[in-house]
Every structure is written in structure tokens, then in C-alpha cells.
Design a protein that fits this description.
By secondary structure, the protein is an all-alpha fold. The protein has helices at 2-17, 21-30, 44-51, 53-76, 84-103, 116-126, 128-145, 148-166, 172-188, 190-198. The longest helix is centred in the first third of the chain and has 24 residues, at 53-76.
Length: 217
């Protein structure tokens, strides 16, 4: 029974992560599938580029919230009889399920975003102070370069360093998760990295409300 309970929570986390906010908001409010415009990515940055801030900011907030909520479920609906140590691992698995849901959403043909916003939501639940520091790193890189992709990549690489050396986390599961983030985000930004190396990556222009862009977060 305990295993079934855990599997149901993991499934719920995946289904929450699968909520394709970019796709649904684009289709329901604008009649546009953002996956067919700009970068083709169902993420907040592409939504902002294609549809503007009024659509992009809600998408960003929803993506963060669903990542946070997916992990919080393990606290609000604890599996009976599990030790605190095991519960940490359950939360980690639920975090992974939520991110995979965002990248491969069952509600949108398994074609989703790159997971940055959902990872941020997961981090708020598991590493709140570390996320604040990494957000500062993101802001510094972004204001300097105006590259969302580069800012996301550098912030992700900084994440395990912040978790281990600044916050002092020593739990192997949590440290491992932070290292996975540092691998996962650059991996989902492979095309962006190639464009950055070629000098072809587009910078984010705050003055443009709509654009057909090639890069996305």
C-alpha cells in the first residue's frame, strides 16, 4: 500500500508538471500555438517574444508554481510510515517527475518547454535560499549580456556550488539533485549554446512585444 501511495504522488507530480501553461494560454487567449512560432519552445521566454508580457508573465508564474506545488504535496500528504530521510528522497523524485512533466507534457503531445521555471519552483520548495542566490546570478548575467539562455546556463552551473559551499547542504540526494540541474539545463539549451558560440543567439529586447525569435528559455 505504501508503494502505491508513493507512486500515486509521483504520478500527481508529473501531471502537475505537465500543465502546459504556454500552450494553453496561447491557444485559449490568443488562438496561437507558441510551439509553431519563434523558437518553437513552450516556455515563458518564447511566449513573451511571440505574445508579449501579458501572456508571458502568467506563464512564468504558473510554471514556477506548479514545480513548487508538486514538491509540496509530499509534505501536505505525507506517506504513512516513512522516515524523514526517505521522505526527502520521495520529494526529490517528485521534483524530477514535475520537471519531466514540463518538458514532456502528457496534455500537449509530450512537447513542452525547457524546464527552467519549473526547476525554479522545485528549488523554492527544496532550496529556497539557494534559489534566491542563483536568481541574483541570473539577473547579473542577464543585465550584462541580455541573453536569457546564457543566464539560465550560468545560473544552473552555479546552483550546485551555491547549494554545497554557500548553503552547506550535505544530504547526498539533495546535492545530487543540484548537480543534475547543472547538467540538465545546459543539455536542454544545446541549440542555444551552439548559437552563442557562433554569435547567432538573439538577445532579449525589452522593447519588443512580439517577435519571431530563435532562442528561448
Amino acid at each position: 500500500m505504501t508503494v502505491i501511495y508513493i507512486l500515486l504522488e509521483i504520478l500527481l507530480a508529473y501531471l502537475l508538471g505537465s500543465v502546459p501553461s504556454a500552450v494553453w494560454i496561447g491557444k485559449l487567449l490568443y488562438g496561437i500555438d507558441v510551439r509553431q512560432h519563434g523558437s518553437g519552445n513552450a516556455g515563458a521566454t518564447n511566449v513573451i517574444r511571440v505574445l508579449g508580457y501579458k501572456a508571458g508573465i502568467p506563464v512564468m508564474l504558473i510554471d514556477v508554481f506548479k514545480g513548487w506545488l508538486a514538491v509540496q504535496i509530499a509534505i501536505w500528504l505525507p506517506v504513512p510510515g516513512l522516515s524523514p530521510e526517505i521522505m526527502i528522497y520521495v520529494r526529490i523524485i517528485m521534483a524530477l517527475a514535475a520537471v519531466l512533466g514540463h518538458v514532456f507534457p502528457v496534455y500537449a503531445g509530450f512537447k513542452g518547454g525547457k524546464g527552467v521555471g519549473t526547476i525554479a519552483g522545485v528549488g523554492i520548495s527544496l532550496f529556497p535560499l539557494a534559489i534566491l542566490i542563483v536568481l541574483l546570478v541570473f539577473i547579473i548575467v542577464f543585465t550584462t549580456t541580455h541573453y536569457v539562455s546564457l543566464s539560465s546556463i550560468i545560473a544552473s552551473l552555479a546552483f550546485p556550488l551555491v547549494v554545497y559551499f554557500i548553503i552547506g547542504v550535505r544530504h547526498p540526494g539533495l546535492v545530487g539533485l543540484s548537480l543534475l540541474v547543472a547538467v540538465f539545463i545546459p543539455a536542454t539549451h544545446r541549440k542555444n549554446i551552439r548559437r552563442l558560440l557562433k554569435g547567432e543567439e538573439l538577445k532579449f529586447d525589452f522593447r519588443r512585444k512580439k517577435a519571431a525569435a530563435e532562442n528561448s528559455n
